[in-house]
């Protein structure tokens, strides 16, 4: 088993854990990306504990034009947890030892006696995660404490890490499914030879444009338009990571290469900075073990004809002294965009600088 927060967890044992040999006989996990099913006692779900868990997973995904929760949470009464529901891709079991109801008792049966004793003597224990418990490709998280108030406190203090855990797992699944049909041929060779970097481009995307400073791939569907581009320039100083500098660089790229109407060069795209309740959000992140600036926000055409969300990362390749700007954006008017942006984020995370490209691939 693996833990969300290794420093806080002992080696608890769960009755539902599966051996590798048993995993081979399990059905495949079902459900949609971004769906999470929470199994807990009905009284606790309707009370303060349920409110805290529900609000955690209904946090708005940043950088979208309309409010969309980062995950879609669904509650299941333990008494109604049937064979089909057990196969969902993301499950959370929440229980506290001070709850004596039938529903709570059913969840506690998933814990071995040794696990229960560990929870009783160590109030710092509150969570453990496991894979392939009831289905292959499944993630299961157990949330537990001696008392409800303890568990509420733990979730409030560690909510971001729990969210990030599921985010990473969804990205891993998407990586597997996106590239199952293969990759677009030719683009990796162009990137490695001319840009000294690499990006995995899923089958279905097409190369639209490339030159010495800019490369653009795109997938146009009936309901949406998914776009990824890479821009680069010489790295000169840390000031290039400042907010105004990054927005200016992005706008220069878009004005030069991206247009609402390709036949009209005066219909270029730009960064939306005039909507106060939807600001451009920037933060420092570790991106494939490299320092990067993450940028989330909205874009629009200068004539207000189209618009949508974007996600970008800015990072340096010290070996070539190159500053890279990589972005995914979408055009999908009137549609939910959470999962589109999750897909684009997955593609962006395959980006590698020159020193990160495997030798065999060069």
- The SSE order reads HEHHEEHHEEHHEEEEHEEEEEEHE
Unreliable runs, pLDDT <50, ≥5 residues? 1-11
Looking at CATH, the homologous superfamily of the largest domain is Mog1/PsbP, alpha/beta/alpha sandwich
User: In percent terms, what proportion of residues is strand?
Assistant: 25-35%
Rounded to the nearest angstrom, the distance between the terminal CA atoms is: 36 Å
Dominant shape:
elongated
Oligomeric form: single chain
Q: Biggest sheet: strands, sense, closure?
A: 9 strands, antiparallel
> CATH first level of the largest domain: which class?
Alpha Beta
Q: Compute the CA-based radius of gyration.
A: 23 Å
Mean of pLDDT: 91
Q: What's the CATH topology label of the largest domain?
A: Protein Transport Mog1p, Chain A
Number of strands: 16
Number of domains: 2
Q: Provide the helix percentage.
A: 25-40%
Structure class: alpha+beta
Any idea what the CATH architecture of the largest domain is? 3-Layer(aba) Sandwich
Number of helices: 9
């Amino acid at each position: 088993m693996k833990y969300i927060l290794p420093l806080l967890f002992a080696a608890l044992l769960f009755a539902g854990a599966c051996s590798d040999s048993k995993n081979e006989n399990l059905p495949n996990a079902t459900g949609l990306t971004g769906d999470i099913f929470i199994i807990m006692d009905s009284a606790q779900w309707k009370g303060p504990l349920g409110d805290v868990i529900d609000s955690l997973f209904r946090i708005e995904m940043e950088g979208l034009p309309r409010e969309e929760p980062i995950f879609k949470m669904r509650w299941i009464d333990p008494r109604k947890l049937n064979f089909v529901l057990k196969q969902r891709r993301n499950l959370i079991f929440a229980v506290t030892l001070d709850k004596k109801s039938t529903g709570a008792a059913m969840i506690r049966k998933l814990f071995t006696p040794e696990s229960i004793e560990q929870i009783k003597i160590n109030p710092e224990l509150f969570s453990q995660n496991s894979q392939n418990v009831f289905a292959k490709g499944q993630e299961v998280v157990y949330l537990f404490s001696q008392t409800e108030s303890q568990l509420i406190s733990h979730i409030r203090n560690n909510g971001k890490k729990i969210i990030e855990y599921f985010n990473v797992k969804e990205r891993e699944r998407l990586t597997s499914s996106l590239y199952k049909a293969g990759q677009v041929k030719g683009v990796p060779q162009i990137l490695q030879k001319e840009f000294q970097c690499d990006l995995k481009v899923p089958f279905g995307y097409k190369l639209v444009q490339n030159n010495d400073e800019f490369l653009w791939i795109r997938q146009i569907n009936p309901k949406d338009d998914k776009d990824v581009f890479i821009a680069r320039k010489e790295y000169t100083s840390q000031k290039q990571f400042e907010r105004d500098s990054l927005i200016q660089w992005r706008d220069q790229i878009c004005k030069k290469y991206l247009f609402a109407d390709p036949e009209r060069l005066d219909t270029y795209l730009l960064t939306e900075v005039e909507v106060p309740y939807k600001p451009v959000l920037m933060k420092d992140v570790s991106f494939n073990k490299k320092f990067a600036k993450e940028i989330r926000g909205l874009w629009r055409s200068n004539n207000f004809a189209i618009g949508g969300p974007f996600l970008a990362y800015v990072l340096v390749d010290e070996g070539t002294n190159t500053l890279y700007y990589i972005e995914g954006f979408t055009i999908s008017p009137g549609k939910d965009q959470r999962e589109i942006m999750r897909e684009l984020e997955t593609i962006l995370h395959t980006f590698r600088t020159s020193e990160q490209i495997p030798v065999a691939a060069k």
